[in-house]
């Protein structure tokens, strides 16, 4: 189960504020600090990807057939969903008949209600496990946003970060900006009723939108217990949800060992365009395989350490975390960008914890 909700990751560069930012990211389902402005890309005839800015949410894919429209992920903010719908209506007068939620994180499904209001005959599709988690966590979005707001307000009032370190003048400006954004997000969410999936699936299936085949699949657990992917065989377009996030993978929870297998299956699809859960459109499987290799290294190193000592149930994270070194991947993910390198280090710290927790359940 994932523990993130919908609090915007603070867009800050300083290391001491980054720790607070990552904490907010873990309790939130929104895009990380590298998110760019809203961008629309025509992937193929009748197929578009929408990359949302910051708190707008995850990527949305729009698939237009001769009869109907299929949307993958409805993003987070109501205003962003409305903007997407207005864009779709510029492309076609055909109805949006299906919205697929790739997983339960709110930045990929909180816009469901907006789509249903706009298209009353809409069917909202999700894997059966995703539906369970959506029902469990979806309705609390506004409350979780307010929790993040309280943390920011505490930082502003005390002038210190979560570790008690005084904020610099630049830090204080970043907190002030984050507070303004958070207040805006909360204002949008109040009054919006969370809409869960209306149709669930356990097995792969295809939909013909009219000269446009859409394959909906569950390849295995990874980022969550119900990650759905979409493939357009004629257009060679693959939509991954948060199984793949660029440039720094979202590995703050999940099922690392299963995720490795799922990414292996994902890498076998012939795709000219790959839409990740967040980040720009990819055109080959190299990043998918890089994430797989990162997870494999973390799991293998942890298993080696445990085999040399004792099972995880008899140890603590502090006992074993030093035996897992993922620094060899830092440059591959972050290049020479110091901020991305810091995000990578924060991510791997949490990845090691998740791998240990997984091992402790064996």
Share of helical residues: 40-55%
- Described by the principal axes of the CA atoms, the overall outline is globular
Please provide the count of β strands: 12
CATH superfamily of the largest domain: Ribonuclease Z/Hydroxyacylglutathione hydrolase-like
Radius of gyration: 20 Å
| Chain oligomer state | single chain
Q: How many helices in DSSP terms?
A: 11
**In the CATH classification, which architecture of the largest domain applies?**
4-Layer Sandwich
Which structural class best describes the helix and strand composition? alpha/beta
Strand order of the largest sheet: 1-2-3-4-5-6-7
Write the layout of secondary structure elements.
Layout: H1 15-26, E1 39-44, E2 47-51, E3 60-64, E4 69-72, H2 78-91, E5 96-100, H3 112-118, E6 123-127, H4 128-137, H5 141-158, H6 169-189, E7 199-201, E8 205-208, E9 213-217, E10 229-232, E11 237-241, H7 256-266, E12 273-276, H8 286-308, H9 317-320, H10 330-334, H11 338-360
Parallel strand pairs: 4-5, 5-6, 6-7, 11-12
Antiparallel strand pairs: 1-2, 2-3, 3-4, 8-9, 9-10, 10-11
Helix pairs in contact: 1-11, 2-3, 5-6, 7-8, 8-11
Outline of the structure:
The protein has 362 residues and is α/β, with parallel strands linked by helices. The protein is 41% helix and 15% strand.
Characteristic terms for this protein:
362 residues; alpha/beta; Metallo-beta-lactamase, Chain A; 3 domains; 7-stranded mixed beta sheet; 41% helix; 15% strand; disordered N terminus
